[in-house]
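Incident review: delayed structure delivery

Summary: a single-chain prediction request sat in the queue longer than the usual turnaround. Root cause was a stuck worker, restarted by the on-call engineer. No data loss occurred. The affected request and its eventual output are reproduced below so the record is complete for anyone auditing the incident later.

Affected input:
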Amino acid sequence: MSSTARTPRFIVCEDGAEYIERFRRFLGGSFTFVPARDLGGALEAIEAGARGDDAIDGVLLDLDFRRTPPERLVDESGRALAGALAHVDEGTRRRLTESQGIFILRALRARGLRLPAVLFADLADAEQAGFLERTLAPLVVASSRTGLGEVAALLGRLAAPAT
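Output delivered after worker restart:
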């Protein structure tokens, strides 16, 4: 890589630090990873990148956000559950947390953000994965068990300029 080449930057949106720590440790020489704990954090990182020379090349999302406080969750329409809406019953909270990565990506798409995305989700239904990839494009649904070599190759493709 030449001294003028820019290192591709990816937001890692998850409720913990498992993905970002793993990616930074093993892929940090080739990519920069920016943490985001929720939709608000992802939007802040995208905005910060747009203001400077640190443009974001893509968003990596975990599917499940069980550790996220209710007030930081978004619903199916991308609305934050802040205030009175944050007091949802346990069934609703579980449903929202189990698909939060999808809801965050939907909210980004609704705001016109077309950054490439990877959703790390172990979906049993290939049709569901295909539906998500079509309706939330550009998106790749990848298993949470995807190897680091495959992740690196995928990120390289996502960051490559379109020809």
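Verification: The beta strands are 9-13, 32-36, 58-62, 117-120, 139-142.
Action items: add queue-age alerting; document worker restart procedure.
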